[in-house]
Structure to design on (284 residues):
């Protein structure tokens, strides 16, 4: 009653699991969706340190079937694995076989419960040693993941551009960032699925929802997040007269004719050219 009342109120209020124009559940008959289980299992094992997996295996091996904690976990995981087959939010490159890796947080949480059970059956000294080893392993693995993810040229250039603008924009000056736009064509497959379940009315609702959100380019928002100047000092979509203009090489945008090239930032094959335009007021 405590945790179910809010989801029930949501379903009743929206007359379904989600508002019109959005999609949550699909009842497709595809055997390929069972591969989602293997994918989530692989993500769980890949992102859990070996000492933690060892303790979890001990907890599963020594645990008793009449243990209410094990039964609760088994029921929870069973419901989760069944529900994931009907999730409408598959991931590229194959939405039928893959879902977002964030879904593995639930099996990982179950693994940690098994770790607690495993610690009950090992000597305190060994349990403490395995816990310390697992902690150090997590730190090293987190460092590896951060290095991998921040190696993306778009992320590196967003940070470089933010640092450059922070150092060079004068008081009150604004910057226009010309980056690869977000277009409805990127969501065509999603619109097709909405049309299949909800008809043309659902597609119209989906377009209305998209029109009501800020669909500025991702590289522009990344730059704003990394900058200390604040969103008011940047423009992502307006072609207004700004003293500074940053043009991403994959945006398809043209360089300002009245601008002077002040910097060229590069990461891999991706380039951002920063121009300073003369005669443009700084603004309020």
């Amino acid at each position: 009653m405590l945790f179910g009342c809010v989801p029930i109120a949501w379903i009743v209020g929206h007359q379904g699991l989600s508002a019109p124009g959005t999609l949550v559940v699909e009842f497709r008959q595809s055997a390929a969706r069972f591969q989602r289980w293997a994918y989530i299992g692989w993500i769980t094992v890949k992102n859990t340190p070996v000492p933690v997996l060892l303790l979890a295996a001990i907890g599963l091996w020594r645990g008793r079937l009449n243990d209410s904690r094990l039964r609760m976990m088994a029921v929870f995981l069973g419901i989760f694995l069944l529900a994931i087959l009907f999730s409408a939010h598959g991931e590229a490159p194959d939405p039928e076989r893959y879902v977002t890796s964030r879904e593995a947080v639930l099996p990982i949480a179950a693994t940690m419960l098994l770790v607690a059970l495993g610690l009950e059956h090992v000597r305190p000294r060994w349990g403490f040693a395995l816990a310390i080893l697992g902690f150090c392993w997590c730190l090293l693995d987190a460092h590896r993941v951060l290095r991998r993810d921040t190696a993306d040229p778009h992320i590196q250039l967003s940070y470089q551009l933010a640092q450059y603008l922070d150092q060079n924009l004068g008081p009150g000056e604004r910057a226009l960032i010309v980056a690869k736009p977000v277009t409805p064509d990127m969501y065509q497959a999603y619109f097709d699925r909405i049309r299949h379940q909800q008809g043309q009315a659902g597609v119209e609702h989906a377009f209305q929802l998209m029109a009501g959100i800020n669909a500025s380019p991702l590289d522009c928002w990344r730059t704003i997040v990394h900058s200390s100047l604040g969103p008011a000092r940047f423009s992502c979509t307006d072609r207004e007269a700004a003293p500074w203009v940053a043009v991403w090489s994959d945006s398809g945008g043209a360089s300002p004719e009245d601008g002077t090239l002040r910097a060229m930032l590069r990461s891999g094959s991706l380039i951002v050219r920063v121009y300073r335009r003369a005669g443009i007021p700084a603004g309020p």
Notes: The chain is about 50% helix and 10% strand. Residues 17-149 form one domain. The CA atoms of residues 97 and 186 lie 20 Å apart. The beta strands are 175-178, 234-235, 244-248, 259-267, 270-277.
